[in-house]
């Protein structure tokens, strides 16, 4: 299914060429044709690739809400457009109204790539955003590089996204699994002690593989823990009993469940139901509100990291919380926050560039410093297009303390100064971004 989002119910006030034509648009532009630039007409289209079915569908639903809210605010004002982004007017972007299309990726890389291709080639999308699976994100990012269309990765956590598979046309606000390991390992060491043994189950695709590698690295280096074994599990597994039985018999002190979305809720719930929590500590390195809600009582005491949470008590976070609740009457998850933020960051870069011409927009994003989305001071690093940002560490609440929208407590907002790596280190060492397209 494809959905078109217009951001308001009224047609554009003008059927003529956009007012921003001196630096952009159709006639008179100083830039040559590239991708879907120049834009024809007075509407710019954004394409959103979102899982609306499959194991990450709950995350996709909230992701789409974040995108819809961003489109509405870009066209009509509200939220951060009014308060946090000086470059944005609330009257479109460079005098273009923003239109959007979305398609169901089904958490499948090939399906997502097909949707993105349709958005770019049929709907003339000038920017694409999306992902709730790193495999999906990497596939779409690769297509966008070929099509010279800027891609703003949303929920993508694999090291590969801005490491081995980084590309000039792709950007990521979300921290990666390397940073999760850096933030989580000291907390686990302080809570459970040093010298423990751990066992890992992980989703068998790029995210799960890099997740278990980074957890092994940092639990070993920071906590002095030893990995007994790590075992791959297929995406969409509904019965983890055989995997959990092997983990229970491993002699490990800690079970790390590198699963996400419905898979994460299923695996941690089945682990608790099987009695593993009585003899082992459970860790879910990355989770979120929909996943925690689905797992319920099973997340009690379970440590992990999240993209963002409404408990982060600063002005931008609380403004986003209020705007989202006003629109949807629900508490937003981290993926909604990412979707909203990425869309506005792209639009603001277009305004700073004075054009939708992709190479100039990319240059505005590279090494951009910002402090307007509730995660403290950030940099969108030029060498790998990875945001340098804080990482929230959380612990699941007992069922008796859970309430709608809040299922875990915020333990630490690990500063970006305690995280990261140089441009020639870690995941970034494998990054080669490629060309802008105007060389």
Description:
With 439 residues, the protein is α/β, with parallel strands linked by helices. It has twelve helices and 16 strands. The strands form three sheets. Strands 8-7-9-10-11-15-16 form a seven-stranded mixed beta sheet, sandwiched between helices. A six-stranded mixed beta sheet has the order 1-3-2-4-5-6, sandwiched between helices. Strand 13 and strand 14 form a beta hairpin. The longest helix has 20 residues. The N terminus is likely disordered.
Descriptive key words:
439 residues; alpha/beta; six-stranded mixed β-sheet; 12 helices; 16 strands; disordered N terminus
Q: TL;DR of this structure?
A:
By secondary structure, the chain is of the alpha/beta class.
